[in-house]
Amino acid sequence: MRPKPMLAFCKTKDLDKALAILSKRERHSQEDSRKPFYLNNRVNWQERDQQILAQVKETVQELLTAEKPIRITGSKVAKALGQLTLVEQHLDQMPQTQVYLNSVLETIEDFQIRRVRWAVELLNQRGEQIERWKTVRYSLSLWSF
């Protein structure tokens, strides 16, 4: 059996038609790629902002009233809320939540002060004498009480 060349059965007229069809399809695909970008508005961000704000306020109160002091950070609140990705990636679309979070976030110094006050209060509740070494020990929470 002899191998048959591919173009042996094609006529030049058929080739011209095939090329015309291909170029027309290519033009259509290029036009499709130049369509304007469609903005997806499936999420009502104002409503979502209100919902997340209420949940964030509850979560912050839970963290502030925890047995041992926990530093209030954006990621800590979002993790406790179970919405880490939403809060990290879309916080700019939730302005009320962003303002509230920025107002309650603690710096390291603020947290250290709150932790020392917690240790002093704990020593008072136990009726122990307040001494510097005990305050440091309790505030660092290195040992279980």
The major sheet is characterized as:
none
Specify Rg, calculated over alpha carbons: 33 Å
What is the tally of helical segments?
Answer: 7
Oligomer: single chain
Any idea how many domains?
A: 2
Helix/strand order, N-terminal first: HHHHHHH
Shape: rod-shaped
Rounded mean pLDDT is 82
> What's the total count of β strands?
0
Category from helices, strands and their pairing: mainly alpha
Any chance you could write out the topology, listing elements then pairs?
Blueprint: H1 12-33, H2 45-64, H3 74-81, H4 84-90, H5 95-104, H6 108-126, H7 132-140
Helix pairs in contact: 2-3, 2-5, 3-4, 6-7
Give your account of this protein's structure.
The chain is an all-alpha fold and 145 residues long. It has two domains: 44-106; 107-145, no CATH class. It contains seven helices and no strands. Helix 3 (74-81) crosses helix 4 and helix 6 crosses helix 7.
Q: Summed up, what is this model?
A:
Helices cover 66% and strands 0% of the residues.
Write out key terms for the chains shown:
145 residues, mainly alpha, 7 helices, 66% helix, 0% strand, rod-shaped
